[in-house]
Amino acid sequence: MDIMLLVKAALMGIVEGLTEFLPISSTGHLILAGSLLDFNDERGKLFEIVIQSAAILAVVWEFRARIASVLAGAGRDPKARQLLVNVGIAFLPLAVLGLLFGKFLKSHLFNAPTVAITFVLGAFIILWAERRDHAVRVQSVDEMSALDALKVGIAQCFALIPGTSRSGATIIGGMLFGLSRQVATEFTFYLAIPTLGIASLYALYKERALLSADDLGMWAVGMVAAFVSAFLCVRWLLRYISTHTFVPFAWYRIAFGVIVLATWWTGTVVWAD
Description:
Largest sheet: none
Structural class: mainly alpha
Helix content: over 70%
Number of strands: 0
Radius of gyration: 18 Å
Distance between the termini: 26 Å
Low-confidence stretches: none
Number of helices: 11
Order of helices and strands: HHHHHHHHHHH
Oligomer: single chain
Shape: globular
């Protein structure tokens, strides 16, 4: 196995794990990282799907007790049943729009300039949202209604545009819709499980012709890196949101987006599609 390939796999896994659940867009970072590492061919895109599944496993492991309790009590506990229903409702809008427009968006928007512009625009939305006074209606995930879940699901649809950030869209959207910061973040984690899980399985099925036993080593390294970094990131984020806002992430998005745009405009870095 090529050592440099394994190094690239580890770096991509770390990028995926650290950015998947922060409001800074994992897709955008993977597009840019893949371009820099020359790891953005069809084989590289399949690899991104594989390591995404490891990030999902990190969430499942972190919330394993809660998930097991909800699944076990769904038949007799109305709150557990409602949470499952809410996750399903929130998942549907993105699933439908993804099937309808996913291929078109990937063909036209998955490039460095679009990602950079979206980074900056998303940052201004975060700054605007954080300046608002939030009237919190929902203090617990168990208090969410089906309508709350639908609103969060609609917000998640903006993540179809690379650079937007799925977690950023759902957390900020949830806060604007009356969810506390903690509830919006926790529900985002639960919603990630079917959203990313089903998307990964569907993409793997579509790209099954690219599956090769020769890539198992690369996948293993990438998945371990993604799992560990995602697990640490989720743990850190849950503590961070109790006393902090997302304003620092907004400034990061602006700085990073401007750098990408500047290097693209001047030709300092050749960002491949």
